[in-house]
Fold this sequence. Notes:
This protein has eleven helices and twelve strands. By secondary structure, it is an alpha+beta fold.
Amino acid sequence: MPIKQRQKYRDDYYATVIDSVGDGVIVVGSNGLITLCNPAAEQITGFSQRQAQGAEFNKLFTLETTLIEMLAKTMRTGITISDHENVVVRSTGKITPVAVTCYPLVEGNGENIGAILTLKDITYIRELEAAVRQADRLSTLGTLAAGLAHEVKNPLGGIKGSAQLMEREFTPDSDLREYTRVIIRETERIDHIIRELLELASPRALKLSPVNLHKILGDILLLQKKAVVDKDISFIKQLDPSIPEIMADEELLTRLFLNLICNAIDVLDVDGRLTVTSRVLSDYRMTHYERHSRMVAIEVSDDGPGIPQRDLENIWTPFFTTKTAGTGLGLTICHKIVAEHRGMIKVESDPGHGTKFTVLLPLVR
Ligand SMILES: Nc1ncnc2c1ncn2[C@@H]1O[C@H](COP(=O)(O)OP(=O)(O)OP(=O)(O)O)[C@@H](O)[C@H]1O
Ligand SMILES: [Mg+2]
């Protein structure tokens, strides 16, 4: 092969290698100008290769002071610097947490001719860390609650039994009989909460079988539509027909989506919209777990009042409720069901415009 052709082949080969790297790579010359920016870097920073190539790094990334400082230090000292904790990139308009390493670019003769920045998008890692922290918090609360529930269960049985005996002592038209009925009704309510709590805190084996998510969602929506005809809510389904059956506990998933859909219906007024969508996230890897898996995402969104910022942190906490007749256990149970399926649940809410719950479940068959 002639030398020129061989050189071109090598250049193309290296360019393909850099473009194929999943992390963002930005190369800056010692004059501060960007000489290379790969597609992953385009995605993270929001700047296209055409915008970046030849541009002055410090001008293009004015907002990213940490990157500018790291780059300057590597250029000055020739040492490699990493920061996997504190860096975020804002250029795309949204805040992306990134792990950054800045390597010196050194020629064969030892001359420092610039620096290479590698950027790794760690949004998902941050989300997983948050999910783990939340799970820890909930499991402590769950253990506490279970202890309490055990203590309350026995005296409650005594109260209910005595009230039932007392009820028989009064004549049907006696006021006292009505009072005992109230005692019985309210102890039953406490009993229901306690059973839910105990279930929440106890480990349980999933009854796994191939589950058709769309059938579950379709059945729930059909039933709920009938239950709230007078509210005239629009139920919108945008389901990806290519989603296969997943191995899951059908009863628990039904409970999960019923809770989310009922919560949405509760906050919707007449003419509200409730949307359920499903899709496969092919690039979502939960490397946190031993097995890499594709995920299916199911979103339940409403255009209701949204959740105030101050409540967002608390909605997963047992007994947090803003409803007069709510137990505040619905979302705690949802959280547990999703964790048992090795998935993830998250919420986004725009006060005044609505709320979106996203459930991610591994697509294992
Ligand atoms: N779609 C939503 N829009 C607005 N707020 C919501 C939504 N979903 C949940 N919430 C808030 O989160 C709180 C907790 O929900 P959770 O399902 O755990 O309990 P609950 O609905 O109040 O009671 P329960 O589920 O026992 O009936 C609710 O009281 C409400 O304030
Ligand atoms: Mg609820």
